[in-house]
User: Fold these one by one.
Assistant:
Number 1:
Amino acid sequence: MAAETWLWEERGRTAAPLWRKARTLAVDVAEPLIRLAQIPGAFVPGLDRALDKASDLTALFGADLNISPLDGPAAFAPLDGVPPPVVSKDGEGPVFFDGVETTITVAHNGRGKEQILLERIDLCVIAHAPGPDPYFAYSLEGEGIIGAGFIEPLRFYVEVGANGARPARRQVTRPDGGKAMLVARGPNFLDTDPPSFYAIGPDELPVMLKLTVTALDAGYYETCFRFFYRVAARELRQYTTDPIRLYTDGA
């Protein structure tokens, strides 16, 4: 049986998973973020739900990031020259062929004056089934921002293969007006030279992110983005996006 085309107008917004929320990972933490983020399985979606519940009790501040969900057609743009997305085997969401461009906006929620520092963005592989799958067989074909002012999006490009996500590349504008790429030194998209940390205050415009994920090796991928940030330079929190599902035959 072949997959059916995913039609947003018929299915509407996908249901928000239980783990899509901000979680408090540590309070007054002095440990470097990179060590916390590399604990195996500690912050994978669907795990540590006790920590989810406890976070509501341990949060020091009402200030937080509003991160737009990946649950509607405005958040996704299929790659050029490929068929439209199809329904996943479990029926829970769309599966994009070869890759997809996602749009996410990040803004201060305005509850308090504390500044929020976005320290890490990474791509987490939730599940991977290698090799071609007849269910996804295909042949190649020849949330909006609310506010005032022009916002230049931050553009990231990341490939994922059988061995996981590769270092992301961020497009930047050179002094002469041309474009260049900064390559991350590890899983953290913001770990570049120079490093790119983003301080977000209550009176600032949202930050728009354009993140393009491309699948390299044949197979099915279920991934998500993870955001790690500190409130008032003290409380460490994590937000996990909705799943991003990809399939490629590797051709």
Note: The first helix runs from residue 8 to 11.
Number 2:
Amino acid sequence: MSGNNKADTQRLIKFVERLPFSEEDKKRWLEELHTNGISEDLLDEVHKKFLEFTAENLGGDWTRARDNMEITNITKQWKLSQASRNFRHTR
């Protein structure tokens, strides 16, 4: 996890712990996050599983929309931080 952004990893850990994913998925994802940090495959898998939830599973449309924005923002921020590592500040 040393090479990854720890703040994004912590945000994803809290997201996974808070939502009603299956216990085996949570355990596998949290173990991966603690050892290797965020990866694009892991983000995609969590997002796909999240999209399978109905609004009733999450407590309503507003809660589902808020959680969808949160996982989308985590993904965007992680991708931005990965891309910025390739950008050299020469000025």
Note: The chain has five helices and no strands.
Number 3:
Amino acid sequence: MKHFSSFAVYPTKNIYVGRFTFAGFFYKHWQYLVAANNVAYAPIILETKNLYTSTFGEITQYNEDFGAQQAYTKQVGVVLKSFNAEIDIFYEAVVFKFHKNSVKYKECFPDGVLGYKHNHLDEYPAKIQQALDLADKYSADLGTDIKDAFTQIKTDFNNAATLQSTTHGHVKSIIPNYKAKKELIDKQILKNICTILIQNLDNPMVLTSFFDEYLIYPKKKKTTTPPDDDDGEYVLPVGMGKTVVADVSFSVDDTLIITNTGDASLQYYFAATADEEPPAEPFALAIDEEAEVKANTIGAPEKKFLIFINPSTTDNGEVEIMLA
């Protein structure tokens, strides 16, 4: 048999998922309690509801912001498809007018059409501008329709990319004193488990119908920690006035969950090299704020470094990083 001490734990205390995911897990548990329609559950239903509301009150707005970012990401994709189609038209016009392998052809297409099409998101503004400048330069020979099309594509791309970047900064959740609130939820879940079991002593397995465990215990756990410290999360101190590179590896299909657990508001950015200068406006991460960032939106795998800045000269910073 198991040692009795193995039962004397909070089952959800040491889980490594983002707040949004855990909120969904806790919300579903609450709804399963309601659906059971057992008067004995009334007290814990009320307690669970109050804890959910007080802890995750802003989660609906968070979900809306995430949906907006996804929509704008698709909008960027639509613009890039238009750009690729216009590049084909530009290519055909140049070949017809100047002939392939001519000096002007090589100026317009030094790397062929693929030089314009196969790029990372942050490279497209330069490629669009390059195509626009060349179409404008040879508009007397090629006409103005191609130049006008690239002008519109530039405008559409800039608008969509700006909106995407803006909403990226909003896909966050600020929950003051989250750790303390999470401890209350852990205790409530244990209390709920005990209540359910007391009501079902002849069928204790019914407990599994009140929880969607797969949400918080993924089949394949990814970790940002070194091999000898596989606890699922990585804690990085960011001292006063310091710029620190995170010792974390991520792939293009990962989502990084970044939480500010320190006493200072921080900034962060992704870079191709560890000593790359920060952009003019790094992402901001307030105290008690968590951000979920998809690696494929920040230029991975080329941008493989996650760098934090602590602008404060009076308070130390700290972040927790997980991969999902």
Note: The longest helix spans residues 59-98.
Number 4:
Amino acid sequence: MQQQEILLEQARLLVNRLERIYVDSIWARRSSGHRGNLLKWIDKLEACRQSQQTLSAQELSRLENLIRVGYRFLEKAAREHMR
């Protein structure tokens, strides 16, 4: 599977999970803008897929970083929930 496809699937999964953070959690509020940014990237990746284009190395790196930060939000929300 191509790297863009893997990142697209990870971004979709992450957006889905970020939407499920308990609404009263401080991490739900902090992650909402991040989730919106990921949704824009998902749209961009889907458009690239349809036109058979690829992202630049810089764009791929930025998306990977957004995904990494999104997982940190999930981790912190989970820790908050377990307290």
Note: The mean pLDDT is 92.
